[in-house]
Give the backbone structure.
Amino acid sequence: MKSSKIAGLGFYVPEKVVTNQDLTAFVNTTNEWIVERTGVRQRHYFDPEKGETNFGFAVKASEIALQRAGLTPQDIDLIVYATLSPDYYFPGSGVLLQRAMDFRNIAAIDLRAQCSGFIYALSVADQFIKTGMYKHVLVVGSEIHSSGLDYSDHGRHVAVIFGDGAGAVVLSATDEPGKGILSTHLHSEGKYAEELAVIYPKSSAKNRNPIEELQPGGGFYPVMNGQYVFKHAVTRMPEAIMEALEANNYKPEDIDILVPHQANIRITQAVQQRLGLPDEKVVSNIQNYGNTTAASIPIALCEAWEAGRIKEGDLVCLCSFGSGFTWASALIRW
Ligand code: COA
């Protein structure tokens, strides 16, 4: 069987930077509260006046990834696009990316696994490559959160965490033994679906778009049981990492670099502590971008790679936890 390796990677965040101080102009919050509880210092927001879109961010990230892989859109056999904030209710953003970059008439799969979206998407892409069906797959995570947050007191604990952006990787078939994606591990536990969710537009409601649900605290905005999410994240992420290590006969100390989903700095620190990893082995960039959901891992991975923190032959571990609940891990020999 073939295996798949990351042949190119890129990310893009919109120009507009919103600091914690900027947020205090329209959110009842403080820089101290946000930094102490989440680690976030600033995030990037899209600018509707510039016509910025979710798939537009994906285009920018994908162009970089393709160029670094030495490929053109014509070489790509499949798009797997993870997002919880698609441009349209339907069709998915994958087809908008397919149109925008002039890909061949290849399949474009939109994938909904929230903060685990990127690892789920990577795993889907990996299966198509391993079976020999496709040679080059574009995997994208892209989000625009800022237009859908509840900036009132009902939603301020959620609103301050999230940011906009996109990351992309090109996954390519390789014959090199022991190289590339070693394994992926995906999980869900739907009994907690409503602990972190956006309920509307709700197809099973008599009126899918009721105006009252647009009020602060309404169902069009994210709800989050923060402490509950926190507790589950710090258990499930180390579990998923250990699962990946054990599947490949490795121990935590064999990890060269851990790229966790950037949910909250305290979650990252708790995971790091449980695994006994030193700071230099753990990527953390939430201070600059906030939580960008499906985009957070490819952005962090790409930044770490650009900074020379990931070298040929390194053992790279990705892990995530998020709404669903979903959680996942991937182990990669770079
Ligand atoms: N600014 C200032 N005060 C805020 C605030 C904000 N943005 N958001 C909430 N508060 C206030 C609350 O009103 C509450 O005030 P009270 O004590 O007077 O009632 C107090 O701060 C504590 O609120 P609470 O929601 O219980 O805070 P918390 O300690 O649970 O911290 C999170 C909130 C969201 C930072 C924390 O629960 C968390 O990190 N959870 C994980 C979330 C996460 O990572 N989600 C993404 C997963 S993919």
In short: Residues 29, 33, 37-38, 115, 156-157, 160, 224, 226-227, 229-230, 263-264, 267, 291, 322 surround coenzyme A (CB under 6 Å).
